[in-house]
Amino acid sequence: MAALGMCGYYLYDFLHLERAGSSRVITQQAQGNFKIDVRLTNLTYDTAAHLLRATVQLEVKATQHPLEIESVVLNLQKNPDGSYDWLPFEKTDLETFETVDNPKAPHLSFAQARLNDLTLLSEPGRREIWYPFDASRVELVPRACVNLGAESCANATTAQIKSVTLDCNDPGFVLSGPEISGNKITFRMVRRPFVHFTSIVFLVVAILFFVFLLVPPGRNPPADVNNLLARSLGFIGALWGIRALIVPSTVTIFPTVVDFSILTLFGFVFALIIYRVNKLYSKEGGL
């Protein structure tokens, strides 16, 4: 039953990985003459640099006729010093056209824009030493204005963002959250549950195999010691192979919690070998 449960879980995780990346939509109360939808797609986490990379897509729609969309300014995060980095979209950056909600309504201005490879700041929720249970925390303070400069938008009291959509396409991470507090959006990038589950399963199997090494020796101590040495070498090689399988090359820190677990088991194995060999020579010396 346990094996069937594991196979079922792995199949579910594989099918989940084959679907589009995890997505979250955060709706907000947009006000004013324009409504803006912000979409962060292709979210990927750079483990070494602790940075989040994304593609920004904007959709801007006027709520009244004949308002025109001349420019858009967007900010997503507040810098540690309290300043903002505004992303300006001029008319040449916008793809503008007109749309209509129903045949009898007047045509409304609509615009789209796209910015590739945007870098977002993140904070380690759990540092990389805790791999595969590490996580990254990202805080967004989205703000956007139409036909206003950055300074005017920073002082504006009217919120024009209608929704913020987060699309994670990183095969190694999933979105956790988000948590919303006022105009602040906080979410985390965490490792896939598959990695968590597999690491725990391998650890349990390794511990059970070590318990197997603890089986009391038979009636032939020298043969038992030789057998223990052979099994221990195989056990150590298997542990290091598991480590190479679980910990990817993108995890640059050493040691991680996986390494601590493996090295601890190494220590127990060496202690067991020394104990058995010492016990054998003590008996031979006594004879």
Looking at this protein, list some descriptive labels.
287 residues; alpha+beta; four-stranded antiparallel sheet; 5 helices
Describe this structure in words.
The protein is of the alpha+beta class and 287 residues long. The protein folds into two domains: 19-191, no CATH class; 195-286. 35% of the residues lie in helices and 33% in strands. It is built from five helices and 13 strands. The chain has helices at 2-18, 150-155, 193-213, 221-246, 257-286, and strands at 23-27, 34-46, 51-62, 72-75, 87-89, 95-99, 108-121, 123-126, 135-140, 143-146, 161-168, 173-181, 184-191. The strands form three sheets. Strands 1-11-2-3-7-6 form a six-stranded mixed sheet, with no helix packed on it. Strands 8-9-13-12 form a four-stranded antiparallel sheet. A hairpin with a 2-residue loop joins β12 and β13 (184-191). α4 packs antiparallel against α5 (257-286). It is rod-shaped and about 100 Å long. The protein starts with a helix and ends with a helix. The model has no long low-confidence stretch (mean pLDDT 82).
Give the strand order of the largest sheet, numbering strands 1, 2, ... along the chain: 1-11-2-3-7-6
Relative helix content: 25-40%
The topology string of helices and strands comes to HEEEEEEEEEEHEEEHHH
Q: Enumerate how many helices there are, as a single number.
A: 5
The assigned structural class equals: alpha+beta
Terminus-to-terminus distance: 51 Å
Task: Specify the biggest β-sheet.
Answer: 6 strands, mixed
Q: What is the alpha-carbon Rg in Å?
A: 29 Å
Give the strand tally.
13
- Broad shape: rod-shaped
Q: What amount of the residues lies in strands?
A: 25-35%
Number of domains: 2
List low-confidence stretches: none
Instruction: Provide mean pLDDT, rounded.
Output: 82
